[in-house]
Amino acid sequence: MTLADSFDVAAQGIEVSTQRIKAYSANVANAGTPYYVRKIPVVTESNTVSFQGVLADMRQGIFHTGLSLNNSGVVYQGDVADPTPGKKVYAPGHPQADKDGYITTSNVNVLSDIADSTMASRMYEANLSVLDIVKQMETRALDIGKSQ
After folding, report:
1. Closest Cα partner for 13 from 130, 141, 133, 127?
2. How would you classify the pairing of strands 74-81 and 88-90?
3. What DSSP state is assigned to residue 96?
4. pTM of the predicted model, to two decimals?
5. Domain spans of the chain, in order of start
6. Which of 35, 41, 113, 123 could form a disulfide with 27 if both were Cys (CB 3.0 to 4.6 A apart)?
7. What is the number of other CB atoms lying within 10 angstroms of the CB of residue 8?
8. Each residue's pLDDT tens digit in the chain (148 positions)?
């Protein structure tokens, strides 16, 4: 993995963290909105190297000197709806009440979304630290090159 690859992986992590924080923020903001369904961010690994693929190459006599991690990182796939049902509350005067006078409350658990948002924020900070470390490594490598 090159230093440029490290930048790419950290940048992907920052983008995914940002999307996760947006989803959790929307959930918390809509916790009191009737019929709102909590959104769960979906994040997947973007590494295309598979163990099965490496074994298939080895069977064909193709041996790699190392695994290429050029496609490493994470990808934000979007949001899925939380299947947990909201509570039915009797509110006959509510403008969104059904014919029996009930509304369905949001299925958002505010504490859970705040905790998840905090984890995403820490992930964001960690990826910023990676960018800073890689930048320092590149600067030191250039300094070594200048001194010789």
Report:
1. 127
2. unpaired
3. T
4. 0.77
5. 3-30+39-81+108-147, 34-38+84-107
6. 113
7. 18
8. 677 778 888 889 999 999 999 999 999 999 999 999 999 999 988 766 666 766 777 777 766 544 454 556 788 999 999 999 999 999 999 999 999 999 999 999 999 999 999 999 999 999 999 999 989 988 888 888 777 6
